[in-house]
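user: Please review this fold.
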Amino acid sequence: MDPGEGLEQYIGSKVRDARVDKARAKAEGCEWSQSYLAKRVFVSQTRISEVETGDVPPDRDLAGKLESVLDLPRDCLVDLVRILEQGTVLDYAKTYLRRQDKARIIHTAGSIVPGLLQTPDYIRELLLTGQAGDPTDLDSYVEQRMARQKLWEQADPPWMSAVIDEAALYRATAPQLERLLEAQGSPNITIQVLPFGAGHITGHIIGTIAVLTLPNGARGAYTEGFLTGSYSEDAAEVIKYQRIYDRFAASSLTAEASTDKIHEVVKRSK
């Protein structure tokens, strides 16, 4: 394995070298084989082999576990994984995703379920229909998108208000609908459904818009359509997209009625 072949191989070499060093030192009196390391981080031996060869790099969660178990410096692998992920993100989305990780308030409206609430099966459906990312590497993309949801595990996660077009509910998978109901029960997440009967505004959500408020009070606006999008922190742009979001939210069902609507769609899908 040549670490110079790519970042995946470099990450793999760091994991393998750290494991081999522990094996040579007979750390904790164990052999430190791939199988032993796999048990310590709760994955299969095959998964560790994939990481070490660079075939399938770890996601952020696994990278963090490997750092801890192998006594590597904090974030030395996680930061490399973040850099690797950026290579699979379209340029116009990179700044938005970095800001999203730090945002304190997120207002979003869209014709699909927002990324921070998506389930793996739903992400795969989007990929296969060409609505999200490159479908040539499904597993890697799903891992990356799910890794972004780690922000919900923070001690003080962001506040999120999401408007979802009713049509998106009928296109969602059963696990995705259950995830929306679960999210609706969170104290920091509010979901509103824009119903078919919302008048002339119905059907005007094409793609996704989001307005972020950062810890220092700065704000940014993001819009994304089919293979195109933009992120701006220009005040006029932010105000424009906040007004668009507010209009959608005002025409949507209440949170309580939205929960009832999701339950209704769940029953119809059975």
